[in-house]
Amino acid sequence: MEALSRLIVRIFFRRIEIVGRDNIPANGPVIIALNHPNGLVDPLCILAHAPRRISFLSKEPLFRMPVVKYFVTALECLPVYRRQDRAKPRENLKTLQAARELLARGGVIALFPEGISHDQPQLQSLKTGAARIALGAQSLLAADAQHSPGVQLLPAGLYYTSRGIFRSDVVVVYGTPIEVAVVELDATSIPPRAAVLALTQQLADSLRALTVNARDSELITLAATAARLIDNNSPTDEKLRPLQRRLQIMQQILAGHEALLHENPALALALVERLRRYETLLNRYGLGLTGTTRPGTGQALRHVLLTFIGTAILSPLLVPGIVVNYLPYRVVGQLARRFANDGEDIVSTLKVLSGMALFPLTWLTVSLALWWLGAPRLSASQLLLAPLSAGCALWFLDRATSTATGLRVLWLYWTRPRRYAELRREGQAIAEQLLLVEPG
Q1: Rounded distance between C-alpha atoms, residue 255 and residue 236, angstroms
Q2: What residue ranges do the domains of the chain occupy?
Q3: pTM for this one?
Q4: Nearest-angstrom CA–CA distance, 110 and 52
Q5: 2-210 has which CATH code?
Q6: Pick the residue with more confidence: 148 or 87?
Q7: I want to staple 110 with a disulfide (CB 3.0 to 4.6 A). Which of 32, 60, 200, 251 is the partner?
């Protein structure tokens, strides 16, 4: 299952960064607690690069859904019964016991203490389940001298640059494990409420430090633009990976904006408006977040030339890959948007599930059609080379987007050099102004 998760994540996302992997204990019972912004894709991102086998706590309805129930069963997930699913919460006593038994065997459990997948711009209030499981298991294991080390509660944050967009980026950040105290349990092995609430609050604070939180979604979008500007106009910290670096910049920008709103609201609003106008201007020239910072014209020219050379070399596989996969690619996107019902957090999930069915079905259909048309060798070749051909098309999709931006940068530089220089200066000026805003 881990191999399948790795393949799905590698196909769907252009880049995935794992930060703080060393914070995952190499042995002993561990509870990983994550934010939940992207439906079933969230556990896939954890499973794809986890150094240990992980079992998830998942809402009970998933165990009854077609296709999805296969995944939750294969992952040895434990069901969580929720009132909003018209379930009886007392059924969770069995789940708590099963979770404690898994931890007693030195296993790893991952859960989403927000309780729901959502598309809100900030961390939602945490349920107490993670704390209750951790405290209960820790206290029961403490009575058994054979169990060492004890339970460790590990917060982890997920951030997607564009969670519903195919070939976007994701970063997983593991924080520092939280020490779980040994407490006195009641007759039913339930920890005291005060200890549960205190540990839940500590977990919430840790998760907020690992994630991006803002008043609204537009601020996060603008913070992403600002982070790109600062990153492109400041010395690079080689100790941090690219997505990790921008994530930290975004967190600093949003914290600084919040502080500035209290100290000088007019300046805070003016800075947001200036950034909004700059982003609009970049989009008018088709430059997006890349802007006219890095890469420069020389790097843009090299990127364009390499794309054309690669396209020419791969064309025997690339052309059929584009022709065969374009229709299912469009259908997957349309189906996901139609059935998501404006829920941005499940778009990726729907794309993954529908893509797993439609793409292989398309390859088989094309192969059967070629066989029926009297071309058995071509049919066999198409079926055997379909994954490789699709991989070439995927490479082209990535390069085409960045190459188009590179061409627009070059065109602007060659045809309107003064405008190009003005955009660069404005981006640098905004970056410098943002750096002067101190977080509260």
Answers
A1: 21
A2: 2-210, 217-288, 297-426
A3: 0.90
A4: 11
A5: 3.40.1130.10
A6: 87
A7: 32
